[in-house]
Amino acid sequence: MQGEQVWAVDALQALGHETRLTVFRMLVKAGPDGMMAGEIAQGCRVPPSTMSHHLANLERAGLAKSERESRVIRYRADYAGMRSLLGFLMEDCCQGDPRLCADFTETASCKP
Over pLDDT 90: what percentage of the chain? Predict the structure, then answer.
């Protein structure tokens, strides 16, 4: 439990920055295809060197994955990491009464 909590704090800290939260949401929206690092930097209007720092932070936190493709790097949301974080946050939800969290799945459902 302690190690899991330390990881969750790191993940939440990574998402606690406006640019990183924006990037994470962009990657989630992009789906399995992900986005090139340059595209992400351009979309956020952040210099590539600064974006590199933000992307590395998300990757260290287990919320993003990278893959080199020739001379560029493609980033994708780490959906397993996202599910782990959400699961950790919801673990003790509702003190065992599922009615209290019943609308969570509706709120979190994927929308086209």
Answer: 71
